[in-house]
Amino acid sequence: MAPGLSGQRPPAQAPAPAHGKAASRLLIRNAMVIYGNAKPAFGPVDILVQDGLIARVGSPSPKDPPPDTVIDASGKYVMPGIVNAHMHLQDERGGVAQPFQYEANLLLACGVTTVRDVGSDLEKAKKWREESAAHRLVAPRILIYTPSWRGRGGPSPDGRPGETPAAVRAGVRWAKENGADGIKIFGIDRDLLEAVLDESKRLGMRTAAHIAVEETTARDFAELGVTSIEHFYGVADAALDGIQDFPPDHNASNEVHRFGRAGELYSQRNLNPARLDEVLDLMVARRVAWVPTLSIYVASRDVLRAQNLPWYKEYLHPTMEEYWKPDLAKHGSYFLGWTNTQEVRWKKSYHVWMDALRRFALKGGLVAAGDDAGFIYSLYGFGLIQELELLEEAGFHPLEVIEQATLNGARLLGLEDRLGRVRAGYVADLLVVNGNPLDNLRLLNPYGTDVVTRNGRPISNYSPIVPGEPGVKVERGGGIEWTIKDGVPYHVPTLMKETRDLVAAARKGQRRE
Fold first, then answer.
1. Is CATH 2.30.40.10 correct for 1-79+480-498?
2. Where in the chain is the domain with CATH 3.20.20.140?
């Protein structure tokens, strides 16, 4: 008999889990399992979760005491919880309050159980990290990578000037002493970069780099041993014969200029494919990961679509909606007179960028998934699901995409011995998905997607359907049913209702004002 279909069965009275309530013994029955390491799905099997850990994957044991709660996963798929490797913890946008629970709910609803915060208020982030770990806050697990130095002319977080190697080393020590898990690095001169990375390694802190247009490129960051490169800045710059062809009136503080020209990087006439390969080889050799955040720039190649995504109707908080209105004073709100020509340039750049990303992975490079949501029409959680769709567009198999979003994220954080897999002994971070995400990654979107059914059962839209055939319908389906973090089950439809209610109340309050 197939695993999970024989042996002891739980008593009929075993209830379904309560939303947000831990159970000592949780049994997930009859699940198809996507393990997280890119091997094919397997099942149906049973998954026993005990005291927050995965105790068994496979057939039940006659010696097992009955479970406290049961999730019937018949017809569903179970996969590891998602690691969002590039995000920002936010309780305001543009100085206007927005509840942090709004972001946290959407992240969990989209299957995110672990986040790497790469820039937020450190004291608030530490408080949320502690409360999430203690399950006093409904939120993903949080790791904090804080800036040790805030860029040209900016201070270290302790307020001291950051223009010397000694100062940036002090900034790294300050971050460590004040509870940061890692260091976020922005555009920086090479002597300062060398100091930051050396001090970070000495203190055992991992690093993430947003490489602005500076004297350093991805080549410098890789040579000096950064943990990960974010976005695409710096990689393309390192492949140019010379520098980018900036016009005389280019002003890097003007985001229309900056993001407009950024979309031209991979289509520069002096982009040298051989130099690009050299940079990718160096990144692989030095074990530098790449977190591309493809989804955060996708509005730049089709802004009208990005402004009108269907889930905004019920899930876009008015504070976020206001922040997204084009305004050069707000970071990422740069779509002032955005042109078709600019979109075409971005589309061309995406082709080269995705090809480089795919070649990087084929060379042995580690790709992890992050969305950088909260900016540029990317909504928390939803942006991460779109990231997975774009990784598939880049040429990765859905099994590889899920590995990038789970186990690779854990590897990036140094947590691969306990996170990122469906495996006995690992932390019980699990998603119970309505349908097979390997067939359609959009099934992970909590808003749902169109599913073709015949007599109530999902079928492929490539099935031999006869026009007018009775029993064939297009229905709303998919979505994650349960997000389980540390063994605590969160019912996604409940999270989504809470979020709808929160947004509706905020809109009502705004109208009263």
1. yes
2. 82-413
* Each residue's pLDDT tens digit, 381-394: 999 999 999 999 99
CB atoms within 10 A of CB 242: 8
What are the pLDDT digits (tens) for 73-107? 999 999 999 999 999 999 999 999 999 999 999 99
CA angle 176, 122, 211 (to 5 degrees): 75
Q: Which helix (H) or strand (E) holds 183?
A: strand 182-185
Given its phi and psi angles, is residue 414 left (phi above 0), alpha (psi -120 to 50 degrees) or beta?
left
Q: Give yes or no for a contact between 434 and 477, defined as CB atoms under 8 angstroms apart.
A: yes
Residue 27's identity, in one-letter code, is L
Those residues whose C-beta lies under 8 Å from the C-beta of residue 140, and which sit 6 or more positions away, are 84, 104, 107, 108, 112, 113, 114, 115, 132, 485
Instruction: Identify the burial level of 329 via C-beta atoms within 10 angstroms of its C-beta, where 0-12 means exposed, 13-18 middle and 19 or more buried.
Output: exposed
On whether the CB atoms of residues 162 and 171 are closer than 8 A, the answer is: yes
Token digits for 400?
Answer: 């590889």
How many angstroms separate the first and last alpha carbons of the chain? 64
State the DSSP string of 380-439.
Answer: TTHHHHHHHHHHHHTT--HHHHHHHHTHHHHHHHT-TTTSSS--TTSB--EEEESS-TTT
**Residue 130 parent element (H or E):** helix 122-133
Range list of H helices, 50-121: 100-109
Task: For the chain, give every residue range classified as CATH 2.30.40.10.
Answer: 1-79+480-498
The closest alpha carbon to 441, from 378, 367, 385, 396, belongs to 385
Structure token digits, residue 78: 């179970």
| pLDDT at 40 > cutoff 80 | yes
What gap in Å lies between CA 314 and CA 122, rounded to an integer?
31
Contacts of 59 (CB under 8 A, 6+ apart): 3, 4, 6, 7, 45, 46
CATH superfamily name and code, 82-413: Metal-dependent hydrolases (3.20.20.140)
Q: Which residue has the tokens 């049973």?
A: 46
Q: Is the dihedral of CA 485, 490, 496, 502 positive or negative?
A: negative
